[in-house]
Amino acid sequence: MIERLRGQVVYRDHESITLDVNGVGYLIYCANPFIYDTNEAKETVVYTYQHVREDVLRLYGFATREERELFTRLLQVAGIGPKGGLAILAEGNAAVVVQAIEEEDESVLVKFPGIGKKTARQMILDLKGKLDVMVSNESEVIPSQPLSLEKQGALQEAMEALRALGYGEKEIGKCEKELKHEELEADEYVRRALRLMVER
Known about the structure:
8 helices, helicase, CATH 2.40.50.140, 3 domains, alpha+beta, cytoplasm, five-stranded mixed beta barrel, Holliday junction branch migration complex subunit RuvA, four-way junction helicase activity, DNA polymerase, domain 1, RuvA_C
């Protein structure tokens, strides 16, 4: 199985991207292809799920491992296939899905395309209590907006700087989740993180 791919997004449409990896173009179906930058100078990491059927071999792509994990759990529910799973994730806020399942809120789940009351009830029966690994202490799923490799490195460098300053892992983890939305230089990440800690 292909666990992840790293390359340049050279094309995207409403349902997929083409990721160029060392000259090979991988067609990857995504919940929201437009979160990926088609600037060919940037490298992007896409976490993948390979779906195999008698007449189909497709790659599905996700910005985080957590998003992919939720997708694979959704596929275990009767009545939900890859297309349905992507439609649920396309809203861009997996935390809403997880919360609705944990709280048995069918009214939220039936708002997703292709999900009726029967399937919503099945989602709750099959998945309640099994999605905690995808949720932080504040019931937030890691943001799905991908950073370029350069900015991922800058963010990790900043987090190491915070550790060197003596901040605890819990505080650092909260800052990292919030700052994953932003593309900054390492020193800017550090300044923003310190400001966030002061404001708490």
